[in-house]
Amino acid sequence: MDDDTSSVRLEAWSEGDAGLLRALNAPESMGHLGGPETEEQLVRRHRRYVGMSADGTGAGRMFRIVLLPEEVVVGSIGFWAQTWDGEAVYETGWAVLPGFQGRGLATAATRAVVAEARAAGLHRHLHAFPSADNAASNAVCRKAGFELLGERDFEYPPGNPMRCNDWRFDLG
Predict the structure, then answer these.
(1) pTM above the 0.85 mark?
(2) Contacts of 38 (CB under 8 A, 6+ apart)
(3) How many angstroms separate the CA atoms of 86 and 74, rounded?
(4) Separation CA 87–CA 157 (nearest Å)
């Protein structure tokens, strides 16, 4: 696996990132995730992200993705504790603003978040669950070195059933 992350830097999610979350909530970005969220849902998500980034327990973190050398914020990524098939694992998810997609930035950020999850050290595996029909996100998993375990039924957001691929990265 090529583990080049030099095109991006991850910075802890902060109070000032609410506007980024709103920008990432565009219909073209949320098509595989049940559609755009309401303002109330965004406010709750932002509070959760800020809290995760302030938590030093290793249970997870959210980041803004900064494009280098331009120093432009282009998206978000994170990892969080989850129980999957009875195992304590990390889960990851990302979003890149439409104008910056297709440039390998999500893959670089995913490689960087693998290093963050490994350093946090609580769980052996990091999973990603992109929609089975989301070719771009499945390509990110493949290029970042995740192993495809197969298709699974998933619910995201709550109440929205979807078919996803279960990708796993061994952090050990």
Answers:
(1) yes
(2) none
(3) 35
(4) 21
Whether cis (ω within 30° of 0) applies to the bond prior to 69 is yes
Residues 6 or more apart whose CB falls under 8 angstroms from that of 57 comprise none
Residue-wise burial string across 93-114, b where 16 or more C-beta atoms lie within 10 A, e elsewhere: bbbbbeeebeeebbbbbbbbbb
Q: Are strands 72-84 and 87-96 parallel, antiparallel or unpaired?
A: antiparallel
Q: Which residues contact 103 (CB under 8 A, 6 or more apart)?
A: 7
- Judge if the upstream peptide bond of residue 130 is cis by omega within 30 degrees of 0: no
Which of 36-40, 88-92, 110-114, 144-148 has the least mean pLDDT?
36-40
Q: Which residues of 30-66 are buried (b: 16+ CB within 10 A; e: fewer)?
A: eebbbebbeeeebeeebeebbebbeeeeeebbbbbbb
Q: Are 162 and 127 in contact (CB under 8 A)?
A: no
Residue 37 pLDDT level (bands cut at 50, 70, 90): confident
Could you tell me whether strands 125-128 and 87-96 are parallel, antiparallel, or unpaired per DSSP bridges?
Answer: parallel
